[in-house]
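Hi P.,

Sorry for the delay on this. The queue was packed all week, but I finally got your sequence through. Input first:
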Amino acid sequence: MVSPVHVLHVCDREDAAAGVGELARQLPAARWRTSLVPLGCEPACGVALRRQGVPTTSLAGRSHVDPIMLGRLARLLRRSEPQAIHAWGISALMAATLTRPRSPLVPLATSCDMRDSLPPWGATLVRAVLGQVQRGFAADEATRNWLASCGVERTEIAIVPTPVAPLQQPVGERGELLATWRFPAEARVLATAGDLHPWARFDDAIWCYELVRVLHPAARLVIAGTGPAAEHLRRYADQVSEPGCVVVDERPEALAQALASAEAYWQLGPAAVAPAGMVQAMLAGLPIVASAAPPHREALGPDQTAAKIVRLGNRAEVARATDDLFQSETLREQLGDEARRRAAETFDPARLADQFAAGYETLGMRRWVD
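Then the structure:
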């Protein structure tokens, strides 16, 4: 009897850890066994992954190149004897390259997105480990172009985005969800989400909301997410908006509740990868107003049939696009249906799992026979 193939995943970012959990759910347990090693701090989804049955070992370190952490990873790899390693992100790729067992050599796959191109040493690292990676996955076409510029053959790079787990539907009627934020029953909710960092420009979304509120006084804004800028955004909202009109919600269930209550979704800041919140809005069939960041355009399409695409930082365009959506239920339904269709084509978890499995099959892994 052939045992399941053990693929050990090393990741350096939160969304990749959650993606591994969804990948483990989709891959047949009789064929594949998944374990996860997050570098740095414990991911927020760590407890849920263990309950799901995905062995998760967090390796805390002062940085992604902490020698003590790398030593722990090397011992873990020798002890767990994976038949393949999948590194998510270039920091994880560096760690896996330095620590994977050499005898026998464990095959290595990697997933990258445009966040990996941001460090000045990113391209240098990719060139240095080029000969040691047996399979490459890119989140989008822009990432494949970047990897190709680093010397990777384009034909060896498969475009497979990180899986996004479907949200659990919130319990309660819309009125109950609105009451969670103390919004009136007639509120027209705009939702946005992401990691709350200063560079994400959620403060600009608050300014855009104020323009929309002039046209639609019943409009309300929910910002779902966590991060160091959360308190700044609350203070900023208190300064520029009416009390109770803008809510920054850091609860885990905030995004699901916001999408279930919203008439439209905003993704207005810069992006190096298609944000998970926008993907969830697409899966939910919400009309979207998004900035013209390349990952947004690739996910939504440049023809504006799945979203209203606006120039980054142009508040007037955001207000006009949102007013168009609020004025026309037909337009909202058309954009939402097309967004759902594109999400099913690009981000369906079962289809992505099949694509990853096909990539793993090319690695030439050893098979354990009971």
